[in-house]
Each structure stands twice: as structure tokens, then as C-alpha cells.
Design goal:
Strand order of the largest sheet: 7-6-5-4-3-2-1-8
Number of helices: 12
Oligomer: single chain
CATH superfamily of the largest domain: Alanine racemase
GO cellular component, one term: cytosol
EC number: 5.1.1.1
Function: Catalyzes the interconversion of L-alanine and D-alanine. May also act on other amino acids.
Radius of gyration: 24 Å
GO molecular function: alanine racemase activity; pyridoxal phosphate binding
Structural class: alpha/beta
Pathway: Amino-acid biosynthesis; D-alanine biosynthesis; D-alanine from L-alanine: step 1/1
Number of domains: 2
Distance between the termini: 15 Å
């Protein structure tokens, strides 16, 4: 992760601030431990989706600034109590936040979110200036940043749309600045945009997948050679020798084809994040050799065919994605694609029973 952060910094203009997104338990890893590690990498601001995610980090002693992508009026007292920076794009919410901040005599930092094409959060570009003025005039609100979010920065064919978003955002920012309103941080790029586009007009990026060496499309992978920072491994807990014609798992949708097949059982199932739509569509590695997934994935277990790996036995390590101790490699992006999913979903859905083991060098 530290190597990836350094590579990303080298790609960006020298004064660019990195906000690392630790939403969704830091992409399914462990948000508190990752957040504290990131402090040692000179990351001074972290991003989350929900206010409560930020509060959990603060309760655990995380010292960096916390930015929440969105909030509701019911969370305003939490925002003030825990000093969460928050994305805003709604007049009523800004007014309610300003009112409560004034009552408490407490300054709160906000980032004006301008919707340039994602159609999720934020104001329309033509609404940005009056909202920026409203924030500027509120004595206890500080306009800390202005932001937008790209909808498809990982897709080469969608680059004209991304450039439209950039142009809309730049025009809105220019209009705000023309009135003398200061914008400390201008941010739009996620991992894909930060690695693919040269955007020196912005001075902060929001990095998520790239920290872990994951990518959302082949063109993003080719833009920056990052190191995969996480792997998923299991162990064989049972071996069955099945005869031709016998069936495997719930639904009996896999039939043994050979006179004898060795079927191994792994203690990982759809509760643990390998959803049923991965059933029968990919493979794992045992002793560096491919072992196809067979039968329906169960809640707690899945089965693989180890017929062609005669040395495989109970207790052996199984690589599901990433890299094992022998440098065998399986791409998490390929596994996600085989399961008709995306790598974001694959890693963030890894369940709580899977132990997270952190490996790093202490100076």
C-alpha cells in the first residue's frame, strides 16, 4: 500500500493532497487499522460514505480529518460533535447545518458537491454559485472544498463524457472564484481519473481501489503499474472421492464426469463474500495448479476439483485471488469478471469470518 501511494504521488502534481477512501471498512479490509497505518504514510484526510463510519474512526482514536460524502439533517448534531467534514449540495441542509453550528458557536468545514453527471449527490452546476455564497455568508460554516464525482473515468469510450464533466466543474469553480470566494481544496478524481487524466487545476484526489493495487478496467491498470496489496487464501478441510454420475452440492447442477474425481471442500461460502453467481465459473490455485470451482457455492463451504492435483491434501493452502507464498498469482479482477461482478464488489463483500492478516515492515 505504501508503495502504491508513492507511485500515485509521483503521477500527480507535487502539491496534490491525497484523501484515501476508507469507506465500507476500507474496501473490506479493516478501516481502523488501515486508517492508523495511513497516518504513517502522511495521509492527513480520510474519506467515508456515511457520518457513522467517520464517527467509528474517531471513537477508535483516528486523528486524521474525516470527510463524509453525504449526510442527512438528522445527523447534524453528530457532524458538529465529532467535527466531520461533509459534502453538501442542498440548500435546506446547508441552512439547517448553519443554524445548528451558530447555536453551538462551532465552525464546521463543508465541501460543496456539484453534480456534473453522476446524478447521485450534489447541486446542479447553475446552483453552485448561490450555494457557495450561502456558505460564505454563514459565520460558522467554512467552505473547505468544492468537489464533483466522475461517473465513468475508467472507460476509454466514455472519455468524452468525462471531459464534459471536467468542463462543467471547471466552469462552476471559475464562477465561484470570480466572486473572490476562496476554495482551499478542489477535488474530482477517483483512482481511475487520478491515474488516467492530467488535472493540475485540482489540488486533491480521492483514492480508493488504487491504494490496494486494484483497478476498475484494463486501461487503468496500464496507466500505472501498482502492486496488488491484498490476497484471499483458504485451506482444504475435506476431500471426497466421487464416482462418475454422482452430483455435487445443492441443486445437483454438477455431475461427476470421470470414473473417479477428487473433490476438495473449502471453508468459504457466500456468507464470506463468494456469492452463488461465482459457482462453477472460475478456478483457484492449489500447489500452483488450477482447480475448477464446481457445484453451487454453499453458505459456508465451496467445492473444487483437485483430480489433476494428486498431491493435494487436507490442510493445503488454496489461493482464491492475489499471491501466495510461492508467488503464484490469480487476478482479483479476473475472478470478479468470471462472476459477472466488479472487483469493488468482490473485495468489499468479504465477510467478517475471514481473518484479516496485516503484513508490514516496522522501521
Amino acid at each position: 500500500m505504501e508503495s502504491n501511494l508513492n507511485l500515485i504521488r509521483q503521477k500527480l502534481p507535487s502539491q496534490t493532497r491525497l484523501m484515501v477512501m476508507v469507506k465500507a471498512l476500507a474496501y473490506g479490509t479493516e478501516d481502523i487499522q488501515i486508517a492508523k497505518f495511513l497516518a504513517s504514510c502522511q495521509i492527513d484526510i480520510l474519506g467515508v460514505s456515511y457520518v457513522d463510519e467517520g464517527i467509528a474512526l474517531k471513537r477508535a482514536g483516528v486523528k486524521q480529518a474525516i470527510f463524509a460524502l453525504s449526510a442527512t439533517p438528522a445527523e447534524i448534531t453528530k457532524i458538529l460533535r465529532w467535527e466531520i467534514e461533509v459534502g453538501v449540495g442542498d440548500q435546506a441542509f446547508i441552512q439547517a447545518l448553519a443554524k445548528e453550528a451558530s447555536i453551538q458557536q462551532k465552525e464546521i468545514k463543508v465541501h460543496l458537491h456539484i453534480d456534473t453527471g453522476m446524478s447521485r449527490f450534489g447541486c446542479r452546476p447553475e446552483e453552485a454559485l448561490p450555494l457557495a455564497q450561502m456558505i460564505q455568508e454563514a459565520p460558522f460554516l467554512k467552505l473547505e472544498g468544492v468537489m464533483t464525482h466522475f461517473a465513468c473515468a475508467e472507460d476509454l469510450e466514455q472519455d468524452p463524457f468525462t471531459h464534459q464533466q471536467i468542463n462543467k466543474f471547471d466552469a462552476a469553480v471559475a464562477e465561484i472564484q470570480a466572486l473572490g470566494i476562496s476554495i482551499p481544496w478542489k477535488h474530482a478524481a477517483n483512482s481511475s481519473a487520478a491515474t488516467r487524466f492530467h488535472l493540475p487545476q485540482y489540488n486533491m484526489v480521492r483514492i480508493g481501489l488504487a491504494v490496494y493495487g486494484l483497478f476498475s478496467s484494463p486501461i487503468v491498470r496500464d496507466s500505472l503499474k501498482l502492486k496488488l496489496a491484498l490476497s484471499l487464501l483458504s485451506r482444504i478441510v475435506g476431500i471426497n472421492v466421487c464416482k462418475q454420475g454422482e452430483t455435487i452440492s445443492y441443486g445437483r447442477n454438477y455431475t461427476v464426469e470421470k470414473p473417479l474425481q477428487r473433490i476438495a471442500v473449502l471453508p468459504i461460502g457466500y456468507f464470506d463474500g463468494l456469492h452463488r453467481h461465482y459457482s462453477g465459473k472460475g478456478w483457484v490455485l492449489v500447489h500452483g495448479q488450477k482447480a475448477p470451482m464446481i457445484g453451487n457455492i454453499c453458505m459456508d463451504f465451496m467445492m473444487i476439483d483437485i483430480t489433476d492435483i494428486p498431491t493435494a491434501q487436507v490442510g493445503d493452502t488454496v489461493l482464491i485471488f492475489g499471491e501466495d507464498e510461492h508467488r503464484n498469482f490469480l487476478s482479483p479482477e479476473d475472478l470478479a469478471m468470471q462472476g459477472e461482478s466488479i472487483v469493488h464488489e468482490l473485495v468489499t463483500c468479504i465477510g467478517p469470518r475471514i481473518p484479516r492478516i496485516f503484513i508490514y515492515e516496522e522501521s
